């Protein structure tokens, strides 16, 4: 258990132990600290280095898409998998075009791949009727398996639903980064709800 989100002193930002809470501060867990440092080897070290460079170069300058392209290029990732949501098909098309413009080879796969009916999931009929009869299910495991078979160097998530992204990340053999997440109400900008948590969304979020 740790308390970082509630920490007011945040000694880790300046490596100041006097400002690290005595209890429940992960910076005081030397065992995990050393283990995490030891794990910075091979591709993980390379990703850590290159993402630090992207952060430094792009900070308050590059948009997320520019950072994503720079990250792929710095890591020398040539073949990029884009796992996208059908609700963002047009946006995915533009996204792929921009990646290709920057010299990346892109393979893309939609969430509805395989055209499997939702009945396959065993959702009770009365619940299924709430949605659309015989709706095609999202198949994030299929997205991951297809990109695994194509030996992509890096997979990018583009607007997958909550939980579907979980399954994709769980089954992807290549490293994953997230470009966009699904929020059907807030134009895929879920943090907007946080900005309104003390105002218009208070009743919704703290009921
Ligand atoms: S690591 Fe420690 S000092 Fe840093 S935010 Fe978490 S509790 Fe605070």
Could you report the average pLDDT, rounded to the nearest whole number? 95
According to DSSP, the number of beta strands is 4
CATH class of the largest domain: Alpha Beta
Q: Alpha-carbon distance between the termini?
A: 26 Å
The shape is globular
Q: Give the second-level CATH assignment, the architecture of the largest domain.
A: 3-Layer(aba) Sandwich
Record the SSE blueprint.
Blueprint: H1 30-38, H2 42-58, H3 64-74, E1 79-84, H4 89-101, E2 105-110, H5 125-128, H6 140-149, E3 154-160, H7 164-171, E4 176-181, H8 191-195, H9 202-205
Parallel strand pairs: 1-2, 1-3, 3-4
Helix pairs in contact: 2-3, 6-7
Bound molecules: iron/sulfur cluster.
Can you put this structure into words, describing what you see?
By secondary structure, this protein is an alpha/beta fold. The protein folds into two domains: 24-61, no CATH class; 77-205, Response regulator (Rossmann fold). Helix content is 39%, strand content 12%. It is built from nine helices and four strands; from the N terminus they run H-H-H-E-H-E-H-H-E-H-E-H-H. The protein has helices at 30-38, 42-58, 64-74, 89-101, 125-128, 140-149, 164-171, 191-195, 202-205; strands spanning 79-84, 105-110, 154-160, 176-181. It has a four-stranded parallel beta sheet, with helices on both faces. Strand 1 (79-84), helix 4 and strand 2 (105-110) form a beta-alpha-beta unit. Helix 2 (42-58) crosses helix 3 (64-74) and helix 6 runs parallel beside helix 7 (164-171). The two termini are 26 Å apart. The mean pLDDT is 95. Iron/sulfur cluster is lined by residues 3-4, 7, 10-12, 20-21, 25-27. Iron/sulfur cluster (SF4) is lined by residues 3-4, 7, 10-12, 20-21, 25-27.
């Amino acid at each position: 258990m740790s308390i970082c989100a509630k920490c007011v002193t945040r000694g880790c930002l300046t490596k100041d132990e006097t400002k690290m809470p005595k209890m429940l501060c992960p910076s005081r867990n030397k065992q995990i600290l050393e283990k995490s440092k030891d794990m910075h080897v091979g591709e993980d070290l390379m990703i850590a280095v290159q993402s630090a460079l992207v952060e430094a170069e792009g900070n308050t300058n590059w948009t997320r898409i520019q950072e994503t392209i720079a990250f792929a290029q710095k890591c020398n990732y040539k073949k990029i998998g884009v796992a996208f949501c059908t609700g963002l098909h047009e946006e995915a098309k533009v996204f792929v075009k921009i990646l290709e413009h920057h010299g990346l080879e892109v393979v893309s796969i939609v969430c509805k791949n395989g055209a499997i009916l939702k009945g396959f999931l065993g959702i009770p009929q009365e619940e299924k009727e709430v949605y659309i009869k015989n709706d095609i299910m999202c198949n994030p495991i299929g997205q991951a398996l297809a990109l695994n078979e194509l030996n992509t160097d890096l997979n990018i998530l583009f607007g997958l639903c909550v939980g579907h992204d979980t399954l994709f990340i769980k089954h992807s053999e290549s490293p994953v980064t997230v470009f966009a997440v699904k929020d059907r109400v807030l134009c895929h900008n879920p943090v907007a709800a946080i900005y309104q948590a003390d105002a218009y969304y208070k009743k919704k979020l703290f009921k």
